[in-house]
Amino acid sequence: MAIPSAATLAVNEIKVIDLDGLQSAGAAKRRDLVRRISDSCRGLGFFSIVNHGIPQASIDAVFAAGQRFFALPLERKMEISLTRSMAFRGYLPMKIMGKDQEIKGNLHEAFHCYREVPADDPDVLAGTPLHDVNHWPDLPGFRETLIDYYARVDALSLELLRLFAIGLDLPDDAFTRLCKRPMSALKIMHYPAQDPADPGEQLGVRPHTDPGTVTILAQDNVGGLEVLSPDGTWLAVPPIRGAYVVNIGEMLKIWTDGMFAATPHRVINRYGRDRYSLPFVANPDYDALIVPQMTNPDPAPRGEPWLATSESLTSQKTSGAILERLYGRIWPTAQTQRFDA
Ligand code: OGA
Ligand code: NI
C-alpha cells in the first residue's frame, strides 16, 4: 500500500463567492449571490468565500496562537488533554482515538474549543453530555484570541445559514431558529508532513463527512484538503489567502432533505512541511431535532459512499445524540482512549 493519490482541483472548479457588500447590495445582486451559493451546496457541496468580513489579522492571530501551543512540550499540552475532559475539549494528541476499533488514527494533533460558558452554566452544572467549560492552555493571550475569533466566525456561520434558507425559498430563520445556543466547534489542527514512502494506513484525516450544518475552514498556504468529486476522483483544494473553504455537513443535508450535499473529504499533507488549519464546524442546538425542514422535489440517491460519519435522512435524532455518538467513536474522553500506533 502507498499514500493514495489525488488530482489537483483547478482554482475555478471550486466556486469563489465574493460576499463583499452583502448587506448593502441591491436585491438583484443579493439574489444572484444566494443563487450561486445555493448551486454550490447542491453541486460539489464545497465553495470558497472571500470578503467575508473577518479581518485577516484575526485569522492570522489564531494561526499564531496555534503554532505557539503546538510548539509546547508534549507534557504541557497533555495538561489539557481530551483524555482529561468528559466533553471533548482541549488537546487531541497525534493518533489518539476513541472507542471505534475500526477507525485508524490520524496524523494530526489538534486543539478543540466550543462556545465559552462559565463554570456555573446550568448545563455544565447538570452534567448534560457535551457541555463543559473550555480547557485553555496557560499561554498569554491564547484564550482571548480564540474567544474573539470564535464570536466572529460563529456570526458568519449564522449569516450563511440565513443565505442558505433564502436560497431554498424558506423563511430566512428556518435553520438559525434551531441554533440559539449552537454546539459549534472551533479546532486548530496541525498536520506534520506525511512521508511519501509510508504505507498510507494513516492519513491527516481519513475520508469523512462533517456532522454539523456548515464548516468554515481557514487553511494555510501548504494545501492538503482533498474533496471527493461526483465522478469519484479525489481533488486537492488549492489554498487561497484570505478565503475560507465552506462545506455542508450531515445535519444540513438532513434539514434540506438531501438537496444540499455533505461531501466526503480528507486531508493528506503530501507537501513536505507542516500544515495548520482552522475548521469551525457549526452545529445546531443540543436538543434541535434533525429532521427535514422541507421536501426535496428530486429525492434521487446521490450514490455517495456510506462513510462511518454518514447520517440517514430519516434517522430523527437530536443534534446532541448525533454528536455524542460520533465524538465518542472518534475522540477519547476521560474514560475511553486508544492509541493507534
Ligand atoms: C475536519 C476537516 C480539514 C482540514 O476537521 O473535519 O475536514 O483542512 N479538516 O483540516
Ligand atoms: Ni471535515
Account of the protein in words:
This protein has 341 residues and is of the alpha+beta class. The protein contains seven helices and 17 strands. An eight-stranded mixed sheet has the order 2-3-12-9-14-7-6-4. A five-stranded mixed sheet has the order 1-11-10-13-8, with no helix packed on it. A hairpin with a 5-residue loop joins strand 10 and strand 11. Helix 1 (27-42) packs across helix 5 and helix 2 (56-70) crosses helix 5. The longest helix has 26 residues, at 142-167.
Topology at a glance:
Blueprint: E1 7-8, E2 16-18, H1 27-42, E3 46-50, H2 56-70, H3 74-78, E4 90-92, E5 96-97, E6 109-114, H4 122-126, H5 142-167, E7 185-191, E8 205-208, E9 214-219, E10 225-228, E11 234-236, E12 244-248, H6 250-255, E13 265-267, E14 275-281, E15 289-290, E16 317-318, H7 319-330, E17 338-339
Parallel strand pairs: 1-11, 2-3
Antiparallel strand pairs: 3-12, 4-6, 5-17, 6-7, 7-14, 8-13, 9-12, 9-14, 10-11, 10-13, 15-16
Helix pairs in contact: 1-5, 2-5
